[in-house]
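Journal club prep — side note

Before the paper discussion, L.F. wants everyone to see what a predicted structure for a comparable chain looks like in token form. Sequence:
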Amino acid sequence: MSTGWIVLGVVVVLVFLAFSAYNRLVALSQRVGQAFADIDVQLKQRHDLVPNLVETVKGYASHERGTLDDVIKARNSAMSAQGPAQVSAAETQLSGALGRLIALSEAYPDLKANANFQQLASELSDLENKIAASRRFFNNAVQEYNTGIQQMPAALFAGMFGFTKKDFFDLGASRTEVEAAPQVKF
């Protein structure tokens, strides 16, 4: 009789651990999803700003067509990207293209003095800071989630419940390209 109670007690404890682990992993997964949605909002604002910036630059630097086309292609690619890995790669390209576009202002003093360009560049700079903060929050959420699925007792149940490792929003190999100051050539 006492053996039955012990077995029942062990089963109840295991069920409790499974439910607790599942609920914790669901909460962590939701946090990752919400963090990615925050990044997505910031990126959409940046995507909406890019055409205005390009149009402003066109009036002053019309012979810089290659740079302008690169920015538009990178924006279109970024808008159609899906999931953190694709979005990260596409946004890295867009950041590089925008860096080259902003660098054009150094070659065109009239453009640099244009109030509309200054406002758009300021908005872009503000958005870049917000994106960086959102990316840090997302990566923190992913780190907590990935740690959560590897810690005991959740590690015993994570695979059964379909929880798998998530990818960070990383600049990857092109980090040095994005962080490097754009070269201005006359």
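L.F.'s comment for the group: The helical segments are 2-60, 65-80, 83-107, 109-113, 115-150, 154-158, 175-179. Keep this in mind when we get to the figures.
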